[in-house]
Amino acid sequence: MTVLTFWSGSASDRRAIASDPVPESFRREFGWRGCQTLDKPALLEWHLAFGTEQTSSAALAWLEQQTLAEGPGVAEFARMAKALSGASR
Asked: Contact, 7 vs 43, CB < 8 A?
């Protein structure tokens, strides 16, 4: 069973949003596991409410980096897609 955890950042996190777009409180509480159990839009909604386009972009870059580090690479996705397309014939 998946349990969603909500995160909204602290006042201190909001003050430091430009210099720390993925606050320590987020990383400490969730790490990358957070993207599996966290209400996924929370970090981005937080940036839309309190940040800027630049801070939102930095948070997205962090999420992308975590996704690439944890999951299969682009080459692996291409290999899987090719295998699946061949299997469906």
From this structure: yes
pTM: 0.59
Packing angle, helices 42-50 and 53-70, rounded to 10: 160
Which has the closest alpha carbon to 35: 56, 63, 9, 72? Answer: 63
Work out the pLDDT band at 80, boundaries 50, 70, 90: low
CA distance 23 to 43: 10
Whether pLDDT at 76 is above 90: no
User: Is the pLDDT confidence value at 37 over 50?
Assistant: no
Phi, psi torsion values for 54, nearest 5 degrees: -65, -45
Helix (H, G, I), strand (E, B) or coil at 33: helix
The rounded distance, in Å, linking the Cα atoms of 63 and 43 is 10
